[in-house]
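Pinned message: reference record for 3-alpha-(Or 20-beta)-hydroxysteroid dehydrogenase
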Amino acid sequence: MDRLKDKVALITGGVAGIGLGIAECYIREGAKVVLTANHNVDGGKKAVEKFGDDKSLFVQMNVADEGDWQDTIQKTIDKFGKLDILVNNAGVGGVNGPVESLSLKDWQQTIDINLTGNFLGEKYAIQAMKKYSNAKGSIINISSVAGLVGLPLSPAYSASKGGTRLLTHATALSLAQQKVDIRVNSVHPGWIATDIVPKEYEKQIVSTIPVGHMGEPVDIGEICIYLGSDESKFANGAEFVIDGAQRA
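Predicted structure (tokens):
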């Protein structure tokens, strides 16, 4: 308990699925959380009711919109006075199919949300951490095992998650070389039991996982506690794969 006591965390896409699992773990460990979603406003309101408005804040935002990022960071500072942790979790699966059939519009939407959104999050979180948190903090980019091994029918998703992986490396190196104590790491979930997993393929999916079952949102939340806490002070520019040995 209290591994994140007095820390303020911003979790994008934090009102359902993996994001909510991370938020629940963070609240349990004493953090205050700012949760965002673009469409799931009801989920945001329910999360604040559950966690309490003294410990949480919901902001509706589009992570691909620069103005929304500026607004969300300002609301975080206005509410809690600082920012210690950013979890870039919001993302979309995008349109599936071979690359030659993918429209530019569908490609761009996936890249905008999954990769450009993470770039904007890093940019404005770093600025806030430098100004309000003594240039100290932790950025956690939620990538995917698809950022390590390409999925043949998800070219945009794979590219966005692979891009997030290398964005993590580049940002971590940049900050370390500047002697700025803001760490940047990536988390790569495998199959996690959320509403976005198609039920009709669940048995087939589980058959590909060596441990014999899908993960839970809390499994991602627990590693994010470690990465957000001071326990991980020497973990920087690293990749944490949470996939039940699927990529072993």
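Pinned by admin. Summary line: The chain has one domain: 8-242.
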